[in-house]
């Protein structure tokens, strides 16, 4: 597994990299936000992201990475207040660990978030219109057509479908969908998510299009 370490403290990054390599991981280190965004590629399987970077706030870096990739992101920072954690999760992070941390815990958290998203290689689709099994999803105009006919989705239903369509072939965890659609990390929206997914299936007349992956989340079968 290749892990991208985004940390402006070179000594800390070197120490963490050495520990991870001893544990069997490969690593790549960058010290600023712009380099972090540029370094994310198909080979990147997880990102450890510090928030205190010299060129931009780490939350902005998190959002930019999430805009181009579904790679698991673990924020590691000295910001220990609850507000910082909430903002990090809302920015698209999958987990959060506070410095100073035990590297064994860090590795356990990395393995946990990658396990939840390892169903298939994660590649973000960068298209204005995505077509899957006769369903056309126009992400710019926020329109959906099935077999050429318009489908009336609510704003939340469209947002859920858009999130799933951006990660082709990937099981998207429930918590990530909730975070991106409802902009919260509160699991209380899980039941609402189920209801919305059922409605999308019915309106598209394709109950098999959105597959439920028990205990994890959802994926588009035709993607």
From TrEMBL:
A GO term, aspect molecular function: transcription cis-regulatory region binding
Keyword RNA-binding annotated: no
UniProt-listed GO biological process terms: regulation of DNA-templated transcription
Keywords: DNA-binding, Phosphoprotein, Transcription, Transcription regulation
PROSITE patterns: OMPR_PHOB (PS51755), RESPONSE_REGULATORY (PS50110)
InterPro entries hit by this protein: CheY-like_superfamily, OmpR/PhoB-type_DNA-bd, Sig_transdc_resp-reg_C-effctor, Sig_transdc_resp-reg_receiver, WalR-like, WH-like_DNA-bd_sf
Entry GO CC: cytosol; protein-DNA complex
Ranges for domain Response regulatory: 2-114
Modified residues (4-aspartylphosphate): 50
The entry's DNA-binding region: 127-222
SUPFAM superfamilies cross-referenced by the UniProt entry: C-terminal effector domain of the bipartite response regulators, CheY-like
OmpR/PhoB-type domain sequence ranges: 127-222
Protein name as catalogued: Sensory transduction protein RegX3
Provenance organism: Leucobacter viscericola
């Amino acid at each position: 597994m290749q892990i991208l370490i985004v940390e402006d403290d070179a000594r800390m990054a070197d120490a963490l990299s050495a520990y991870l390599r001893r544990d069997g991981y490969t690593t790549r280190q960058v010290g600023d936000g712009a380099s972090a965004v540029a370094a994310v590629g198909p080979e990147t399987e997880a990102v450890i992201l510090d928030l205190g970077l010299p060129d931009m706030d780490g939350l902005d870096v998190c959002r930019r990475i999430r805009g181009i990739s579904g790679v698991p992101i673990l924020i590691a920072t000295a910001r220990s207040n609850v507000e910082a954690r909430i903002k990090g999760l809302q920015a698209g992070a999958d987990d959060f660990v506070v410095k100073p941390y035990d590297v064994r815990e860090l590795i356990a958290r990395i393995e946990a978030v990658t396990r939840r998203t390892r169903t298939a290689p994660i590649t973000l689709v960068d298209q204005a219109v995505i077509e899957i099994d006769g369903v056309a999803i126009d992400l710019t105009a926020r329109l959906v057509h099935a077999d050429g006919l318009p489908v009336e989705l609510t704003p939340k239903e469209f947002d859920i479908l858009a999130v799933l369509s951006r990660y082709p072939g990937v099981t998207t965890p429930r918590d990530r969908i909730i975070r991106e659609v409802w902009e919260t990390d509160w699991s209380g929206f899980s039941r609402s998510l189920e209801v919305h997914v059922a409605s999308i299936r019915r309106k598209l007349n394709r109950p098999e299009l959105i597959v439920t992956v028990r205990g994890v989340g959802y994926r588009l079968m035709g993607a």
